[in-house]
Design a protein that fits this description.
Elements: E1 3-6, H1 13-31, E2 40-43, E3 45-46, E4 64-65, H2 71-81, E5 84-90, H3 98-107, E6 110-116
Parallel strand pairs: 1-2, 3-4, 5-6
Length: about 120
């Protein structure tokens, strides 16, 4: 069974997810080299020139660049290519991620929402 991690390489959860997948890959390579790349495929789309809110996305992340530097295109392409989408929300604020929700409604059947309370 193939498990695909697809992310856009942006700050926070995207980079954390990619880092965890890369760490898993390295661990598997050290303990069982034959299975290193069999468990998880790491991929995703990022804006042209690896644009991110906190500077260019590190090349250690195996992401493909879109043909524009727009975040919305990256989001749509990642959602379109995914079998399911996990959306993490703070305070059940769907307006905050309206682009992603619109893309998910167009392109995928499985949506997983996790809502977090604002502890600040």
């Amino acid at each position: 069974m193939e498990f695909i991690i697809r992310a856009g390489g942006q700050t926070g959860v995207d980079k954390g997810t990619l880092d965890a997948a890369l760490d898993h890959e390295e661990t598997m390579r050290n303990f069982n080299p034959k299975k290193a790349m069999q468990n998880i495929t790491i991929t995703g789309w990022c804006p042209k020139k690896r644009r991110s809110e906190d500077g260019p996305i590190d090349k250690k992340y195996p992401l493909k660049e879109t043909n524009t530097n727009e975040y919305n295109q990256r989001t749509e392409m990642n959602v379109k290519d995914a079998e399911a989408t996990l959306i993490l929300l703070l305070n059940n604020n769907k307006d905050y991620i309206s682009t992603k929700v619109n893309c998910v409604t167009l392109w995928t059947f499985r949506i997983f929402d996790l809502f977090f309370a604002n502890f600040a």
